[in-house]
């Protein structure tokens, strides 16, 4: 690595740090994705096994042909749920499948891992004035159960906006972000969305909300960068340091 390369990398890092500080300090409302930035919901209860379970649940009802091969092999519960909803929107089948997924998420919440620095960051941020909300594709029942277990309910209540029976409103549709903005009284440009997936980023773009990417590993960072996220952190610690006036 040449000195010019080192200098270029240093300038880029400084620029991104300045952008991070601006995002954090100007936010009057902070909209959080749940699974990722706040916790690893499926840390102790594999999402891949949940997706496989949903596929088997469908197969047990003679509905094997309802999913394409790629959908069956996606290992993402929301891919399975969306696929069924596209083919049978608003049906009893979708309602049953969504309820089944909610029960699996509730089981997962009991063994979820808190994202490092998330709890103190949430508690610090709420004391400084900005309103906090959660905008997620997970069930709001699951979010509330987790928040209660961590003593964080009062930091967000009543602003938890999650999956509803209208599955076409799942992110990247900005519906849950717009609900959060309306309820908190924040203009899109005054808010900040913290998310860890390209669908979070797309939803924030469509809602007009500035975006901060959280990536716990290089793969997630690559996906966010490729989706167009310009400010991505691998830890929430720098955000906490900014709020505490330490950076």
UniProtKB/TrEMBL annotation:
Gene3D superfamilies per UniProt? HAD superfamily/HAD-like
Q: What is this protein called?
A: HAD family hydrolase
Species for this entry = Streptomyces carpinensis
The source's domain of life comes to Bacteria
One Pfam family, short name please?
Hydrolase
**Keyword field contains Hydrolase:** yes
Q: Which parts of the chain are coiled coil? A: none
Q: Does the keyword Metal-binding apply?
A: no
Task: Could you list this entry's UniProt keywords, alphabetically sorted.
Answer: Hydrolase
What would you give as a GO molecular function for this chain, any one?
Answer: hydrolase activity
């Amino acid at each position: 690595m040449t000195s010019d390369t080192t200098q270029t990398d240093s300038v880029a890092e400084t620029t991104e740090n300045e952008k991070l500080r601006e995002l954090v300090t100007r936010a009057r409302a902070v909209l959080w994705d749940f699974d990722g930035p706040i916790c690893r919901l499926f840390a102790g209860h594999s999402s891949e096994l949940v997706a496989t379970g949903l596929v088997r649940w469908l197969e047990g009802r003679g509905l094997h042909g309802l999913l394409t091969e790629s959908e069956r092999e996606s290992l993402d519960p929301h891919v399975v749920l969306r696929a069924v909803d596209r083919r049978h929107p608003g049906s009893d089948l979708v309602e049953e499948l969504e309820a089944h997924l909610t029960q699996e998420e509730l089981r997962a919440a009991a063994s979820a891992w808190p994202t490092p620095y998330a709890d103190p960051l949430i508690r610090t941020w709420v004391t400084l004035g900005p309103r906090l909300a959660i905008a997620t594709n997970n069930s709001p029942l699951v979010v509330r159960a987790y928040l209660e277990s961590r003593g964080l309910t009062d930091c967000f209540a009543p602003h938890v906006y999650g999956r509803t029976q209208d599955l076409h409103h799942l992110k990247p549709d900005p519906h849950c972000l717009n609900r959060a903005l309306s309820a908190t009284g924040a203009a899109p440009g005054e808010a900040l969305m913290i998310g860890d997936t390209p669908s979070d980023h797309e939803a924030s773009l469509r809602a007009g909300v500035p975006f901060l990417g959280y990536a716990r590993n290089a793969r997630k960072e690559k996906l966010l960068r490729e989706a167009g996220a310009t400010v991505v952190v691998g830890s929430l610690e720098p955000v906490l340091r900014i709020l505490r006036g330490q950076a």
